Amino acid sequence: MLKFLNRVVGGSGSGPKDLPYNIGEPYPSAWGSWTHFRGTSKDDGSPVSIFSISGSNAQDGHLAAARNGVKRLRTVRHPNILSFLHSTETETMDASTTKHTIYIVTEPVMPLSEKIKELCLQNIQRDEYYAWGLHQIAKAVSFLNNDCKLVHANVCVASVVVTQTLDWKLHAFDVLSEFDGTNEASAGPMLQYAWLVGSQYKPVELLKSDWAAVRKSPPWAIDSWGLGCLIYELFSGLKLSKTEELRNTASIPKSLLPDYQRLLSAVPSRRLNTSKLIENSAYFQNKLVDTIHFMEILNLKDSVEKDTFFRKLPNLAEQLPRQIVLKKLLPLLASALEFGSAAAPALTALLKMGSWLSTEEFSVKVLPTIVKLFASNDRAIRVGLLQYVDQFGESLSAQIVDEQVYPHVATGFSDTSAFLRELTLKSMLVLAPKLSQRTISGSLLKYLSKLQVDEEPAIRTNTTILLGNIASHLNEGTRKRVLINAFTVRALRDSFSPARGAGIMALCATSSYYDITEISTRILPNVVVLIIDPDNDVRSKAFQAVDQFLQIVKQTYEKTNSGDAAGAAGDGLSSMPGNASLLGWAMSSLTLKGKPAEQAPLALVNTSASLTKMTSNDSSAMDTPTTAPAHVSSTTDFPDQHVPESPTSTDGWGELENGIQEEHESDKDGWDDIEPLEEPTPPPALANIQAAQKRPVSQSRPKQASLRPKNTAKVIKDEDDELWGSIAAPAPKTSSKALNLKTSQSVDDDDDPWAAIAAPLPTTKARPLAAGRGRGAKPAAPKLGAQRINRTSSSGV
């Protein structure tokens, strides 16, 4: 009972009560009489190392030397010397005796001998790592001897520990003392606790206690001998048992052997200064030492040196010891990127090193840096992040993407660089599934609406592809409102043939989201007219789409006739073979464009000449993923393909609130087309189309009414012409004038504000589009139509 109370008062198994750290399991080895424990902080659980030494008498020599070591370790600071955190001395009662214990708390480290066993390095990788470690210990000894005029007197494997980043650090300062070289007449010992050092580690003058000779020697004489002992133990893998073993040089590398022999010179004054060893030894000139040294003085390098270094680093990292790369180089690289001292090419090396980590380690060591980099103003960094988003995007949580990543990425949608706009668009293929419905509806769709009328045709095409891919992540209300309008009103009327093809295939890939009424009244009428498109590839896709949607209609009709009420609802065909291939094509075309090997990091590829010479054969190559529309460069100046934004909408697709369609005027909604019809039977459907077309539109109702005949059948025909007039097949010459007149005087066209900004049709339909685009308040549109007519009529220019 008394022993239990003593442990409670004096300290339990987890450490004394006044020590703010928990003591864990001990390591098998430690220097001298010390015991080395693993430990953790009681405050935050962070790892530490705890060294303890005990004695029954407070005046015990070991405790006195330990107090000297605590004092020295607290006051001497150097990157290659063990970092001191805390110390305390306690007294505990054990039966009738008093036990005195000294604790030192330091950064978390492991004995060098244990770490070497754990790493199991071989051959050149072992030599490179040993060179780096010896380089660090030599710098620590040089600092003590040359700068502080201190003598450690016990440099050996036991006095070296290794940090979590695999750095070597010197400790065991119990014998450490000032070098008293000025007092040569003094006969007393210069090193008060030299008796703690094993005789095998002592040079001849210290072994004989010839203090006069020690004082006449240079300050580094004793520690240079100790460094030689460390080199022997390191390469032989054996603990030094007697001084004579130092003559065995079979295990010493040839490049280090001359310096090893000079360190162990019998004459103290001839021993090699450790500072000279660092500067002149060829052994320290290797890839690992040079790489880590460059990273540590990165701030002193100019931009050219940094750029050259980081471009070589990914290949260089494969040649270095994997553990050193992950535990030493990776933290240095992440820190350099985070604080802005590293160039943009360093991101490639960071992600390559991160790919060697487990998923958990990647989330802890790499992802926090990447998330912070998204806020960088460096355009090169932003381009790199967007190019490689597919490598780390899956590791990002939905909350981080929605709150920390997307707000910064979204700025790229409106960037002046078309290349950056396109990369931002493609990154949404990875990021959009992790966004909340509020962010998608309130922000992302507005940006995509603007990009679908971007001046660059490749961006317009990729926007359609992206919408087809993220359709499954939209809620039902948003899909009903957005998809058909985006694919028919805009994509199918685009003057860029790959954009029209992408619109057709996006409709097919999302066919399961449309009911029978939408297919019959809104999709098929828009797709059918493209079977006479000038572009062969568009015609082919249009025929496929018509077949697919007609099959859906036929199956619904058959189910309706058989009395299947569920079939009458007709939600489309969710598992048609064409759907999978079309969706895969869209995803491939978007993903392939994002491969860094296919684009220069910062320069845009000018393909205006190739686009000018593009024929229907060129565009037909879209069927294969390698030549999908997403590969078209977005840097060309294509004046007749520019689609201006609607003057009647603020975001192009209207206000979306959680996918619920608000009732407001059509001139505020960029993706409203016609309301879904209630009845699936043909007569009521036609009646509802007629009613939708008759919604009041200011300034055009009287003229529209005056143009309509009173005959009912003729009214339906004319209104159908008016609804799809802007994308219909070219009418005979005798009726083209009336079509232009109607489109210029009425904005009814299914009350769709986007008919005014629809992309120009191919050459055969230039005249109707010019008239249609002349509606509204933009004076440049008629000029655009005139230019297309001139180009068609004067092919020789």
UniProtKB/TrEMBL annotation:
<dbReference type="InterPro" id="IPR016024">
    <property type="entry name" value="ARM-type_fold"/>
</dbReference>
<feature type="domain" description="Protein kinase">
    <location>
        <begin position="3"/>
        <end position="284"/>
    </location>
</feature>
<dbReference type="GO" id="GO:0005524">
    <property type="term" value="F:ATP binding"/>
</dbReference>
<dbReference type="InterPro" id="IPR011989">
    <property type="entry name" value="ARM-like"/>
</dbReference>
<dbReference type="Pfam" id="PF00069">
    <property type="entry name" value="Pkinase"/>
</dbReference>
<feature type="region of interest" description="Disordered">
    <location>
        <begin position="614"/>
        <end position="797"/>
    </location>
</feature>
<feature type="compositionally biased region" description="Basic and acidic residues">
    <location>
        <begin position="661"/>
        <end position="671"/>
    </location>
</feature>
<dbReference type="InterPro" id="IPR051177">
    <property type="entry name" value="CIK-Related_Protein"/>
</dbReference>
<feature type="compositionally biased region" description="Polar residues">
    <location>
        <begin position="733"/>
        <end position="746"/>
    </location>
</feature>
<dbReference type="InterPro" id="IPR011009">
    <property type="entry name" value="Kinase-like_dom_sf"/>
</dbReference>
<feature type="repeat" description="HEAT">
    <location>
        <begin position="523"/>
        <end position="561"/>
    </location>
</feature>
<feature type="compositionally biased region" description="Polar residues">
    <location>
        <begin position="614"/>
        <end position="638"/>
    </location>
</feature>
<dbReference type="InterPro" id="IPR000719">
    <property type="entry name" value="Prot_kinase_dom"/>
</dbReference>
<dbReference type="GO" id="GO:0004672">
    <property type="term" value="F:protein kinase activity"/>
</dbReference>
<dbReference type="InterPro" id="IPR021133">
    <property type="entry name" value="HEAT_type_2"/>
</dbReference>
<protein>
    <recommendedName>
        <fullName>Protein kinase domain-containing protein</fullName>
    </recommendedName>
</protein>
<feature type="compositionally biased region" description="Low complexity">
    <location>
        <begin position="765"/>
        <end position="783"/>
    </location>
</feature>
